[in-house]
Specification:
Helices cover 75% and strands 0% of the residues. The chain is mainly alpha-helical.
Length: 428
Amino acid sequence: MSGSGGAGGPDPASDTGPARLRRFLSYLALAGPGLIAANAGNDAGGIATYASAGAQFRYRTLFFMVLVTVALVVVQEMSARLGAYTGKGLAALIREEFSVRVASFALLSLVVANTGLVVSEFAGVGAALELLHVSRYVSIPVFAVAIWAVVVFSSYSYAERMFLVLSLVFFTYPVAAFLGHPGWSEVAKDAALPHLVANRDFTFLAVALIGTTITPYMQLYGAAGVVDRGIGPDEYRYERIDAVAGAIFANLISISIIIATAAAIGGRGPLTSAKDAALALKPVAGASAETLFAIGLLGASALAGAVVPLSTSYAVSEALGVERSVSRSFTEAPLFLGLFTVQVMAGAAVALRPGSLFRLLVDTQVLQGVITPVILVFILVLANRRSVLGDAVNGPRFRKVAWVSVVGVAGMALVFLAQGVQGLLGLR
């Protein structure tokens, strides 16, 4: 898939073997932003949404997920390319290329979307520890304070590694998908051909799948990660592989979650608890399925519970041109650390509301699905501007694929909103 009108760096045909090897080895040292950003979607809300899709509609959402994967590849590639060729994050580019009102609208959309994500992460913490018989009214406040303190007063990098290791248990889902003995002919058929269901529940879940798979946080992180690692045009040919492969790999995990859950409990209807979702891991863990699921959900939730509000603080501070660093004090970076603090407090407070935490996880992903098209339009416009990317601007064919992807995502969000308006007006 051609992402740009011209290639950055020297002509590969004129490279010597050792030179190519040195560049590839340097890429291996830099690689990661694309893989990390795409896999960030497999957080608490993502796990809940994919599991709900499998439980409620079995394999019928697989064709939709194939289309969403294409869209994710396109969007992640554009985000990484913008970072590599401009040396700037998305927030800074939006501030520079659009009017103050338009840029403010983009930032507001980002803050709302990420605040919804923070809510889902703390709901994930509560749901995970409820499986281990710890009340949400204890676990959520304790983890909110702990995450805040680690970021503000300690070394977040160590905690990040620990949470990341805990979340790796979800890599057992592909194994669970095979051991669950799904009907592979049905899986292949539903993945290759559309099997849509014409009702509001299916549309609701489809928008949630968009929101949890192509979330604005991932695009911001992807571009910022490229800039932070100093990846420029010369290295971009390799970073492009990272971005595309990361998106595909992340969605293979997502599809495995749907298949594993559909094989285990497909047809039961909407999931209402983490305990039900954990049943999909029984082929791998047996009686320990709930504990394994709880550990993974806790790690993924705690990791994103810190990273998502940090990404918002970085984006807003970058757009306003003020100090932004976790190594600064409140006096030195009041907006950066203040916004982080408010998001953590608000996310934890909303997650403490009575009701099903698992349902809250899915509901917040719908909010993401409605807001996502706004950010995607900005990314697409930026990637189409020669004044921003020069010869690395979207090529004609890639531009068409990108527009179809963004319009498709926006169309699903509009259908969902239209159904909501009809419901309010009593027209259905």
